[in-house]
Design goal:
52% strand, mainly beta, single chain, 397 residues, Porin, 4 helices, 16 strands
Length: 397
């Protein structure tokens, strides 16, 4: 009991000290100086309310909040250690998961987490050869370096974050619990890159604060790879394209007979593309697409996932920092998982789809307001489609 109390206390102290330092740093930002700071704290606060207007499991309103605070330490500026940097952060989460009323599989909010304090990221990064080679080690998340879509990021539904062929089928490190990992990336400037990462195979199965480390052959390791290019040009329109996947060495339960089977794998593709430019480097309209496939139905809940959408930047005159977005995704659950779940659950759908529409209004450089609608078709554990309206307030310092 003493261990848990001390650990929780230290996590809270870390967050509190970071918030204070960030406030002091932000207050002094107007001081003119040519020197870049060696230590850059940051603070991100978000609060949201969601109302389930109809369908799902039940109508109702829920609220949730999150504080993320941390430091980036540039060791070349601090110690003269060329190419080295360090990052550390923590989380404080509280409130009710809005999916409690929706009955969905893919959590409808990407900040929803059990109440508590979490020690989040803590990693060291070293670059070589003019940043062409990047090495990274420490406590980190798979989705921090892999499978990301720049134009899917503004969406609130968690389906647009880490692919659910990862989070729904394995226990890999992802929000809100990071885990130990290592990454190597090599980049050919303005052409392509290749990267390989190895992560704890089950970072969050039985802990909630991000500092319990234990390894076994049964939990295994997750080996993730990705190749991509961010130098693609179609005329004046820039694009980013990626292909990747994972192989997991751990044991998984066979839904057909309850036995343990070893190994799991999945593939994915990602595309971000400018569709219309404001200027040569700035999109007016951009689209995104991601898809992933996990072929081993007997050991995976999610068999196939696909998403697509568009972002419209500066949608109105004088609102240059605003963004409007429309996105849709589809999740296909494996037949074996659905059959097994229907033995104990009163209702299980074989697939789930979501349509999300948002408008992000940038009130000040550090404050934004994002109202949105989500339409959840065939929520996994509900008989009726759900319609939700939510509003998110974000403060970033």
């Amino acid at each position: 009991m003493t261990y848990w109390v001390v650990r929780n206390f230290l996590c809270r102290c870390f967050l509190a000290s970071t918030i204070v330092i960030t406030g002091v740093y932000a207050a002094g930002e107007d001081d003119e100086t040519d020197a870049e700071p060696a230590v850059q704290p940051y603070l991100y606060l978000v609060a949201e309310m969601f109302s389930n207007l109809s369908g799902g499991l039940d109508t109702g309103t829920s609220g949730h909040g999150l504080i993320e605070a941390g430091f980036d330490v540039y060791l070349d500026r601090l110690l003269g250690w060329s190419g080295a940097s360090f990052h550390v952060s923590g989380l404080l989460a509280g409130g009710e998961d809005p999916s409690v009323n929706a009955g969905d599989f893919n959590t409808l909010s990407n900040i929803a987490a059990p109440d508590g304090v979490y020690f989040y990221d803590a990693w060291l990064q070293q670059t070589f050869y003019d940043d062409q080679l990047r090495l990274k080690f420490g406590q980190m998340r798979v989705d921090g370096d892999f499978m990301g879509s720049e134009y899917g990021t503004p969406f609130i539904n968690s389906g647009f974050g880490i692919l659910n062929t990862f989070s729904g089928n394995t226990g890999v490190p992802t929000f809100p619990v990071a885990g130990l990992g290592a990454l190597a990336q090599y980049t050919w400037p303005e052409t392509a890159y290749v990267q390989l990462g190895v992560y704890d195979g089950d970072a969050g199965s039985d802990q909630r604060h991000g500092v319990d480390y234990h390894f076994s052959a049964d939990e295994g390791a997750d080996i993730v790879y990705e190749i991509g290019t961010d130098g693609f040009q179609y005329g004046d329109l820039a694009g980013t394209y990626k292909f990747g996947g994972y192989y997991h060495t751990g044991k998984f339960t066979d839904f057909r007979d309850g036995t343990n089977v070893r190994g799991n794998y999945s593939f994915y593709v990602v595309a971000d593309q400018h569709l219309l430019n404001q200027s040569p480097d700035t999109p007016k309209l951009a689209g995104f697409f991601r898809a992933s496939y996990s072929p081993q139905d007997e050991r995976n809940t999610v068999s196939f996932y696909a998403e697509t959408g568009v972002d419209l930047f500066a949608p109105f005159p004088g609102r240059d920092e605003d963004v409007a977005g429309l996105g849709v995704y589809y999740t296909d659950f494996s037949n074996d998982a659905v059959t097994a779940l229907r033995l104990t659950e009163p209702h299980v759908n074989a697939s789930e789809s979501v349509l999300e529409i948002f408008y992000k209004a940038q009130i000040t450089p550090w404050l934004s307001l994002k109202p949105e609608f989500q339409f959840i078709f065939d929520p996994m554990f509900a008989k009726n489609d759900a319609i939700l309206f939510g509003t998110r307030l974000e403060i970033s310092l």
